[in-house]
Input
Amino acid sequence: MTHADEIGPGALSRMTAAIYRYLVLGLFLAISGLPTVLFWGLLSPEPSNVAFIDVALFVGALLPVAPALSAALYAQRAWSKEPDLSPTRPLLRGLRLNLRDTLSWWVPVLAFATVLAVNVIFAEGVAGGEFLRPVCVVLLAVLAVWSGHLLVVSSFFSFRFRDVLRVAAAEFFISWKSSLGILSILVVATATVALSSEALLLILGWAFAVSLWLAVRPVIADITERFTSHD
Output
């Protein structure tokens, strides 16, 4: 008997199982993102009193985000291949398998993002700041979209670190529709925080993870076709 038999062939059974999986996914992402949101709440200074250390800590608080999203992507592919009634197992397995590879690029990305964010916030204090700010905003957007592709590569493939960077950079342009999809998700997530609160982003984390999975599936297929052996 396969795991799929646990659910049964009926439409109601499968719908119930799907709802259960995404409830588990939402809870997993909420728990994973809670330290970030709490840390942001403790750090929130007045806009006029923001210092470099505040920016660094705000960006650094995003450290758990990429491993959690990597696990979410890994689990969603596992569920699509073999849906069963134990959705937590692929989430935890994805987190365990991908944690090191994800952090190997996520930590440098956060460090570079900190530099760019400081340039955006304190642009008035340097000569040419009116030019520096939009450039850094664009670079932040490019870095965020590239990170989405890095997330795909490190979640589903075993490449050397430099090849992870190269493949993700290539897919940034090759899979441009997915890049636009990732950018759209980031814009909506940013707007959610700006217009509402970080708490709403936690509650809707599962929806953003599902949207990300739908956006990057063509990237997975393209990487498999272009960069892996078919022997």
The first helix runs from residue 11 to 43. Residues 1-5 have pLDDT under 50 and may be disordered. The two ends are 30 Å apart (CA to CA).
